[in-house]
From TrEMBL:
Keywords: Cell outer membrane, Ion transport, Iron, Iron transport, Membrane, Receptor, TonB box, Transmembrane, Transmembrane beta strand, Transport. This is TonB-dependent receptor. Belongs to the TonB-dependent receptor family. It is found in: Cell outer membrane. It is a multi-pass membrane protein. It comes from the Bacteria. Residues 72-123 form the Secretin/TonB short N-terminal domain. The keyword rRNA processing does not apply. PROSITE patterns: TONB_DEPENDENT_REC_3 (PS52016). InterPro entries: Beta-barrel_TonB, Beta-barrel_TonB_sf, Plug_dom, Secretin/TonB_short_N, TonB-dep_rcpt-like. It comes from Pseudoxanthomonas japonensis.
Length: 789
């Protein structure tokens, strides 16, 4: 079938559009009404059940079989012959569900047009959710465990086919598990963990790579926006409402994702607007913490088609009051660490032509935590604290042109982060700090599409970042600092299928260069930095597919991060104390070797993923205590890391599923660091040695148009041993959660839930010398009501 294949009776899109009048003058109300009518007609055809028996074959032939068995005509845009063979589709299914399964892993999306014709194209959204019919709740359908779509290699692929350790949680899973933010999603991934310290700030650990200073050691993306290169590992709090998916890639991703992706990369992807349907989603909730306060949440999503099949916008707003539970021991005030979080998101998609797509997005976030974050002593009290106000905004524009055999993508992204901290950093020691970070990036990528013997991606990247600091601590002279990073990269990645088609080789290389200029000063002293850092970041991979839905792979990859300036106050105080500190810290780098496998067995009911890895992380920056408040920065010899991780998903029945994941990570510094508690063999900062989690889900139709869903899980991590500078280890942490829901065909659902049912109150990370550590919120019970249209 050619680039624009049409079933008999279907009208080509261009011919149909020539007869239309101008529609941009319609008022929003009439536009919304028209969209609802079109949606009703399309949904009737989409939700009608048919009997299907479609064997694996080319996508072109499979779509013809789908058309014959469903009676639905279709228009296909793009080359259908270069895609992989389609999965088996059998049984009595809704037409849309059958089409969704048929297109899984192909990179093609679809839309049901108002006239009942289906359009299939790479430019259209790839759908995952199973629609609910107007008269009854759809029975659970077998989940395609191998068909989760990811873009880890800058192309759409099934997760099981990607020779990387990757976990993808789609929006349906995030909603079903009641995950509130990206930090909780990361915690459910083998080999990855996080510490949510409150106030809009999260620390991320992936495969033993964890640091409290320097640019991001683990990549962190909001859509196309990278948070990196800004001298601090800042992972913004991203609320999980209405996300498309969260991808966690383990192992260095320096070739395609650049600097900072040393342990791995987290990608938080928002949902694109749907071009063919009007939708509303409203959610409200209330919760209470044991021994603490209560909280509430209000969330809203609206998807608005503006021009049929051409332009749509998606608007998301959230407003949450997170309950506090920490008490002030000095004056008796209770629950002082209540946090107020607001976020706004706008995303628009526009298809000027059938091959060209424009996506624009803006996301803003504000967190106010005047009573401090989630740190407390073992009695859940504090005698000193400082409040945090955090704000960030992100904007990006993505332009994609889809050719017959390749696609060209340009992205522009900008992000601004600001944090104000004010209060006491120690008893009777005032603290006032302001941080302002800005990042601007451009990226141009050209990559092949479809199934081919040689698949490739080449591109260029430019990043400009700056950070401004101003701080005053106690009686020490106030200080200011400024650092600017101007970096660029050229990269390429090629996947070659060998003559034996079961084997393929992946070769990647990225050259990165970063010009860093900085100054840190007080009223009478300064330190400066003007240096260029550069790195070649290669990747070599070999993969073997001995059978369908089975991948075995080996890889060797490098990650890299630029250096930074020594804070002037730390430098001066160290001089006065006779402690020698450098004026800057140098770049650090990591090389990781990995062997892994993924397999789908038992008729698609069991998915097993496992990997072993070993890393050498050189010149890891660490902190040197200077005073009770100040610390300096030095490069250590580095760390050696080795580990193993495994994930298991089992779906014995369509209405029942289980997940189990576990990881063992031995990450230790390789040499003593003078002036610090770090000795050879000390665990790397904030890295737990053992993590595991288990979860289960059961669904049951309990009445006509009504279904019950029960989900439960438990999560454990061993004690994080190393503190920021000096202190004592944290505790083993065991927490459990449960969620009971009722879903109806009328469009509303109700859920009650319990988080941290074990009422775990141990130290989530290592304690300071004064016994302060991050704590989990105590046992929390809540209820959520959701209405969907």
């Amino acid at each position: 079938m050619s680039a624009a294949a049409v079933r008999p009776g279907a009208t080509p899109p261009r011919a149909e559009r020539r007869g239309r009048g101008s529609c941009w003058l319609r008022v929003p109300l009439l536009l919304g009404l028209a969209c609802c009518i079109a949606l009703s007609n399309a949904q009737d055809r989409a939700t009608r059940a048919s009997s299907f028996s479609i064997a694996p074959q080319s996508l072109e032939d499979a779509l013809i079989a789908f058309s014959e068995q469903s009676g639905i005509q279709f228009v296909a845009i793009g080359d259908l012959k270069t895609t992989a063979r389609t999965p088996t589709v059998r049984g009595v299914l809704d037409n849309e569900e059958a089409l969704r399964r048929l297109l899984a892993g192909s990179g093609f999306g679809y839309t049901f047009r108002a006239n009942g014709v289906v359009t299939v194209s790479r430019d259209l959204p790839i759908r995952r959710a199973t629609p609910i019919t107007p008269t009854t709740v759809a029975a659970p359908v077998p989940t395609d465990l191998a068909g989760v779509q990811v873009t880890a290699r800058r192309r759409t692929e099934r997760s099981i086919d990607v020779p990387l350790a990757i976990t993808a949680l789609d929006g349906q899973q995030l909603d079903g598990m009641g995950i509130a933010n990206a930090a909780l999603a990361i915690d459910s991934v083998p080999g990855a963990s996080s510490v949510d310290i409150g106030g809009g700030f999260t620390q991320v650990q992936i495969r033993g790579v964890s640091s409290s200073l320097g640019g991001n050691d683990n990549g962190y993306y909001l859509d196309e926006i990278p948070f990196t290169g800004v001298t601090v590992p800042w992972h913004p709090d991203a609320r999980a409402f209405d996300l498309d998916r969260v991808e966690v890639l383990r192992g260095p991703q320096g070739t395609l994702f650049g600097e900072g992706s040393m342990g791995g990369t987290v990608r938080i992807l928002t949902r694109k607007p749907e071009l063919d349907r009007f939708a509303l989603l409203a959610q409200g909730g209330w919760s209470t913490a044991s021994g603490g306060g209560s909280g509430w949440s209000a969330k809203l999503m609206a998807n608005l088609p503006v021009l049929e099949d051409r332009l749509a916008v998606r608007v998301v707003a959230t407003d949450e009051l997170l309950p506090g539970w920490v008490d002030d021991a000095t004056d008796g005030r209770r629950d002082i660490n209540t946090q107020h979080v607001r976020s706004r998101r706008l995303r628009a998609s526009f298809l000027p032509t059938e091959r060209w797509r424009l996506d624009a997005a803006h996301w803003s976030y504000h967190s106010s935590a005047p009573g401090g974050g989630y740190a407390a002593d073992d009695a859940m009290q504090v005698t000193y604290y400082y409040g945090r106000d955090a704000d960030w905004t992100t904007s990006n524009l993505v332009s994609t042109y889809e050719g017959d055999a390749s696609s060209l993508t340009y992205t522009y992204a900008e992000a601004d982060l600001a944090q104000r901290q004010q209060g006491e950093i120690l008893p009777d020691t005032a603290y006032d700090s302001a941080i302002d970070i800005g990042v601007r990036t451009h990226e141009l990528r050209w990559n092949s599409t479809g199934h081919r013997t040689v698949a490739w991606t080449v591109g260029a990247y430019r990043r400009q970042a700056r950070r401004l600091d101003a701080s005053a601590i106690g009686e020490v002279a106030p200080s200011r600092a400024r650092q600017e990073n101007d970096g660029g990269a050229l990269f390429g990645d090629v996947i070659v299928q060998l003559p034996n088609s079961a084997w393929s080789v992946n070769l990647g290389l990225r050259y990165f260069e970063d010009q860093v200029q900085g100054v840190s000063l007080t009223s009478d002293a300064r330190t400066t930095l003007d240096e260029q850092f550069h790195s070649w970041n290669p990747r070599l991979g070999l993969s073997w597919t001995p059978a369908d839905d089975t991948t075995v792979y080996a890889s060797l990859a490098k990650g890299f991060r630029s250096g930074q300036l020594q804070p002037i106050t730390s430098f001066l105080l160290a001089q006065a104390a006779g402690i020698e500190l450098p004026t800057r810290i140098t770049a650090d780098r990591i090389v990781t070797a990995e062997l892994g496998a993924k397999a789908l067995t038992r008729d698609g009911r069991v998915l097993v993923e496992a990997a072993v890895f070993q890393s050498r992380w050189r010149d890891v920056p660490v902190r040197v205590p200077v005073t009770d408040v100040f610390n300096g920065l030095v490069n250590s010899d580095g760390a050696e890391i080795r580990g193993a991780e495994i994930g298991l998903t089992w779906k014995p029945r369509d209405d029942l599923s289980f997940q189990l994941e576990s990881a063992w990570v031995d990450a230790a510094y390789t040499a003593d660091v003078a002036g610090t508690p770090i000795t050879r063999g000390s665990p790397v900062y904030n890295t737990p040695r053992l993590t595991w989690g288990a979860a289960g889900e059961y669904q049951r139709t309990i009445a006509l148009g009504m279904r019950g869903v029960a989900r439960a899980g438990v999560r454990y991590h061993s004690a994080r041993q190393a503190s920021l500078t000096q202190g004592s280890p944290g505790d083993d942490i065991l927490s459990a959660h449960v969620r009971l829901g009722l879903e109806t065909s009328a469009g509303w659902s109700l859920a009650i839930y319990g988080d941290n049912l074990t009422n775990e109150q141990g130290a989530d990370d290592a304690r300071t010398t004064r016994g302060i550590a991050t704590r989990l919120r105590p046992r929390t019970l809540g209820v959520e009501l959701q209405v969907r249209y």
